[in-house]
Design brief:
CATH architecture of the largest domain: 3-Layer(aba) Sandwich
Pfam families: ABC_tran
Radius of gyration: 19 Å
Distance between the termini: 40 Å
Keywords: ATP-binding, Nucleotide-binding, Translocase, Transport
Strand order of the largest sheet: 6-7-8-3-9-10
Protein name: ABC transporter ATP-binding protein
CATH class of the largest domain: Alpha Beta
Helix content: 25-40%
Structural class: alpha/beta
Order of helices and strands: EEEHEEHEHHHEHEHEEHEE
GO molecular function: ATP binding; ATP hydrolysis activity
Number of helices: 8
Number of domains: 2
Largest sheet: 6 strands, mixed
CATH superfamily of the largest domain: P-loop containing nucleotide triphosphate hydrolases
Length: 268
Amino acid sequence: MTNVMIEAENIRFAYGRHQVLRGVSLSAGSGECVAVLGPNGAGKSTFVTCLNGLRTPAPGSGKIRIAGKDVAALNRAEIARTIAYVAQDTPISRMTVYDWVMLGRKPYIRWAVSEKDTQLCLDMIDRVGMTAMRLRRLAELSGGERQKVLLARALVQEPKVLILDEPTSNLDPKNQYEMMGLVRRLAQERGFTAVVVLHDLNLALRYCNRFLFLREGREFAYVDAAGVTGKIISTVYDVQARILFDDAATPAGGEPRRLVSIDEVTQP
C-alpha cells in the first residue's frame, strides 16, 4: 500500500471489566474508503471513537497514527485539523445550516472568517445538495437533511481522515447512495481516507474498497472487495449468506459488481 494515511495497531478498549475491543487493527491509504462492519454490539462505534481520540485505548494497545503522527500526542485543535468525525446522532439547533457548517472551520479561524472559509463552506453545502436550505435552521430540517449538513461541516475541516458512524441511517435509499457516492468521490479527489461504519452490506460493497469485519470486539477479517466472501458474512452475522455477481451492473472493463444475498438467519 502506498501513502498510508491511517494506521491502528492492536486496539483494545474496556468499560471497567467488560472488554469491548480485543485487538483490532487497520491500515488504509489516501483516497481509500474503509467500511467497518459487524453486528450490533461488535464494537464498531467504540473502535472509530478510539481512532479519533474521543476514547483512549486500553494499556497494551498499539499506536494510532494519522499521516505518520501519533494521535495520542496531538492536542484537540490538531486532531480537529486532521480527523473529522460525524456521529450517529444528529443535533437539533436553532443555528442556520451555513453557520453550523462554518463551525467546522473553527480550528483554522484566528481573527476573522476569511474568503477561503466562506467559499469552502458554500462549496461543501452545495456538494451535499443543501444550497437552497443554507439559511434554514437545523431544527427545521429532517433527520436526513441534518445528516447532510453534518457531512458538509466535516468536509470543511479539510481532514486527512473522515470518520462516519452510520451516516446513512436516516436517509432513504436514493440519498444513501448519493451520500456514499459523494464520500467516495471526495476521498479520491481530495486524498483523504474515509472510515465508515455501515450496516448495509451491499452499500458497503458498492462504494468501499476495504472492509473491516468485527465480531464480539475482535477483528474477524480485514480484506479488499475480492476477499469478501459468503463464509465471512455468514460467520460474522450468524446468517446463511452468498456473494452474487451482477454482470448487468458491471462497469465497462471493470470487475463484476458483488451483491450479498442473505438466504436465512442462523437459529440460536
